[in-house]
Write a structure and sequence with these properties.
Layout (H helix, E strand, L loop, with lengths): L28 E4 L3 E6 L2 E4 L1 H4 L8 H5 L5 E4 L2 E4 L2 E7 L8 H8 L7 E7 L11 E7 L8 E12 L3 E12 L3 E25 L5 E28 L2 E22 L1 E21 L4 E11 L2 E9 L2 E25 L4 E21 L13 E20 L3 E13 L4 E16 L2 E12 L10 E4 L4 E4 L7 E12 L3 E11 L2 E7 L6 E7 L2 E15 L3 E16 L7 E19 L3 E11 L2 E3 L2 E3 L2 E12 L4 E8 L10 E4 L2 E7 L4 E14 L13
Parallel strand pairs: 6-8, 24-28
Antiparallel strand pairs: 1-2, 2-3, 3-7, 4-5, 5-6, 7-8, 9-10, 9-39, 10-11, 11-12, 11-38, 12-13, 13-14, 14-15, 14-16, 15-17, 16-17, 17-18, 18-19, 19-20, 20-21, 21-22, 22-25, 23-24, 25-26, 26-29, 27-28, 29-30, 30-31, 31-32, 32-35, 33-34, 35-36, 36-39, 37-38
């Protein structure tokens, strides 16, 4: 995902988604300033994330990740120094999609975080390409059995209300540890789209296409997680984790204006993900993972547009079975050398269907829009690498991965080199140079030969069976100055970059949303993270980002483009200490971004101001937070197109959000150690 990635949702019911110990252990280097912030070691920065979020209105892992220096949330996704980033839990890369993983992160309490490891170019042994953030969860010290947990409740009011209830438990024993989490989210949504468009047909005739769409939805989501770790001996562990999610949604949409339509949609989805990892004391790791996803839905549509009429009941579904297996080995050699190598194989099967029926009789409607498919993808990855520490100041990590990707359309081999070089010229100052390559895969449904209807029928979502994965190359230079200031410069180039775009058909009154491959996309950017503190009453951080962006496509329908733009973003986070006894803090955060482009879209400037009041009591176990997000209702980006024959403005609604949340941590109870019965002489 790039900065300002703008996509249309796949259906109306998802449109809202747019929206203190100081130590030194060679060869590692501890960076310290006003407070210890980060430890640099072998190409990664290890942040004391609990300390960073201690005074902030953060209650889950997803929001905690956004507080890491250089991290920003762009269009519902997380970026690091302007680049896409993979978030993993306890070093275990999951089969889940970014949206599914983000949903999981939002259910895990922030109190479970031990630390966060940030890598701008993850070595191949992590089975991740590009930037990576590894969230390490607390596992317990294993000294004596203990049980602890947290209960959480949140109420948010935008146009309608949404509620979340959550509970989590962590058991830690001498050899066995386990964690359990359950979260229930439910509520309603409301979204408005005012479209202003001038549609030009190939005969030169023009049609004013002004419509007003109202989308109302309700949903409920159950999320659960169970993890078990068993330590046989030191560095000898078996780990099993299960994650599940069940969501039900209902949506009712109406369109008025040139077009008159009424849409009702019902959907449900189930996600089940299981993983087993085995780690040995001699550096070998092995694991298997399986993911099952099933998402059936129905859509009833009645639409009128001039002399065009649509009346149908659509039933569609997607069922995905995906599994992965890997084997890895690491060796620690003399003179601070290390080598690593491994193999990973992933297989996925996508069974999808879409059928259109006559609403009254239930008879199947003839036509090419009906679809049933079974697609298989296979990925084989082999890698090898080495790392070396040169004294106390320099460390090097180099790896190479060879990967084969195979499906019904593509059968390709790619090579992915990665390099991380760290240099500490003096205490508290660190340089890091990273070179990496990556490959991005489209969503399964985006590659189906299918047509879906959006916005009452004037807009159609077209699949693209020939959509190619993109291959990207990145380089970053990072500098940490005086223990706390972070400066980053980067460049990336992505061939066959793909994104969903809008195109007004010249053949008939129809908007087409479709994923297409561009020739390439390039970004050059700089970022500065500047924290400062005024005594004990103000703690602030400013993040500045500047980007030069270029996108080129010589065969974009009948209107090729080569667009270049320079844009900037600025973030400011402020925490004011109003009172130490009682412990009350005021948090004021703001963001602004200038105009940008994406394909033929023009993206206007946007920004937001959030404010929160945080009260900690009951000896730090209880936390009450009252917040108001997007006070001035300016965060929503409403894209527009005025390019060649294309002329569209989509004005999306934006509502401020009021919220209140409460959490209480309990436990720390240590089970009494009982003397065991002596059976040493029994048969």
């Amino acid at each position: 995902m790039q900065l300002f990635g703008q996509e249309m949702p796949q259906s109306n019911d998802t449109i809202n988604s747019y929206i203190d110990s100081i130590y030194r252990e060679l060869p590692e280097v501890m960076i310290s300033g006003e407070r210890p912030l980060v430890k640099a070691t072998q190409g990664k920065l290890v942040y004391d994330l609990p300390r960073l979020i201690k005074d902030l209105p953060v209650d889950n892992v997803y929001d905690a990740v956004k507080e890491l220096p250089g991290v920003a949330e762009i269009n519902g996704g997380i970026t690091l120094a302007g680049q896409s980033v993979t978030v993993v839990i306890d070093g275990k890369v999951t089969n889940m999609t970014p949206d599914q993983l983000n949903a999981l992160l939002k259910t895990i309490p922030a109190s479970r975080i031990e630390n966060a490891e940030v890598m701008y170019s993850a070595p191949a042994r992590y089975q991740v390409r590009g930037a990576m953030i590894n969230i390490c969860l607390k596992q317990g010290d294993g000294s004596a059995p203990s049980l602890q947990g947290e209960v959480f409740s949140e109420y948010n009011q935008q146009y309608y209300a949404n509620l979340t209830e959550r509970t989590s438990l962590l058991y830690s024993g001498n050899k066995l540890s386990a964690d359990f989490l359950y979260s229930y989210g439910h509520g309603r949504g409301y979204f408005l789209t005012d479209k202003e468009a001038m549609h030009t047909l190939e005969d030169g005739s023009k049609y004013q296409m002004n419509t007003n769409e109202v989308s109302k939805s309700r949903h409920n989501t159950h999320s659960f997680r169970l993890g078990v770790d068993y330590n046989f001996t030191k560095d000898h562990q078996l780990s099993i984790v299960y994650n599940g999610n069940i969501t039900n949604g209902h949506n009712h949409g109406t369109v008025n204006g040139v077009q008159i339509s009424n849409t009702r949609k019902q959907s449900t989805s189930q996600l089940h993900n299981g993983r087993m990892d085995y780690r040995t004391p001699f550096g070998m790791k092995a694991g298997v993972e399986f993911t099952y996803y099933n998402s059936p839905s129905t859509q009833l549509l009645h639409s009128r547009l001039y002399d065009q009429q649509l009346d149908f009941l659509a039933k569609d579904g997607q069922r995905i079975n995906r599994w992965k297996a890997f084997l890895a080995k690491e060796h620690t050699l003399t003179k601070e050398w290390g080598i690593n190598y491994g193999i990973m194989y992933m297989n996925s099967i996508d069974n999808s269907f879409q059928y259109y029926y006559q609403p009254e009789s239930g008879k199947l409607l003839p036509g090419s829009n009906n679809m049933s498919s079974r697609h298989r993808e296979q990925t084989l990855n082999l890698y090898a690498g080495f790392n070396k520490n040169f004294g106390e100041s320099v460390s090097l990590d180099v790896s190479m991965a060879v990967e084969q990707y195979h499906n019904e359309v593509w059968n390709e081999w790619n090579i992915f080199p990665t390099l991380n070089l760290s240099y500490m010229p003096s205490a508290g100052n660190v340089w890091q140079l990273s070179l990496s390559s990556d490959k991005g895969y489209p969503e399964y449904w985006a590659t189906q030969d299918a047509i879906s209807y959006l916005g009452g029928g004037y807009s159609e979502i077209h699949g693209n069976p020939y959509l190619k994965p993109n291959v990207g190359y990145q380089t970053q230079l990072l500098y940490v100055l005086n223990n706390k200031y972070i400066f980053t410069a980067w460049f990336n180039h992505s061939n066959d970059y793909f994104v969903q775009t809008l195109y007004q058909s010249p053949e008939r009154l129809l908007e087409i949303y479709k994923y297409l491959n561009f020739d390439y996309k390039q970004q050059t950017g700089v970022q500065a993270v500047i924290p400062f503190k005024i005594k004990e009453w103000l703690n602030s951080r400013i993040t500045l980002i500047g980007v030069y962006d270029r996108e080129k496509d010589c065969d974009f329908w009948d209107i090729p483009f080569d667009r270049k733009v320079v844009f900037g973003m600025a973030f400011m986070n402020n925490t004011f200490m109003l009172s130490s006894k009682p412990n009350i803090k005021l948090i004021v955060n703001g963001m602004v971004r200038s105009k940008a482009t994406q394909g033929i879209y023009d993206l206007p400037a946007s920004g937001n101001v959030d404010i929160a009041l945080r009260y900690t009591f009951a000896k730090g176990k209880a936390l009450l937070t009252v917040r108001c997000n997007d006070i001035f209702e300016t965060s929503q980006v409403s894209p527009r197109i005025n390019f060649e024959t294309q002329n569209v403005i989509n004005n999306y609604s934006c509502f401020r959000q009021f919220g209140i949340s409460f959490s209480y941590k309990f436990g720390g109870y240590k089970e009494r150690q009982r003397e065991s019965v002596d059976t040493s002489r029994f048969k």
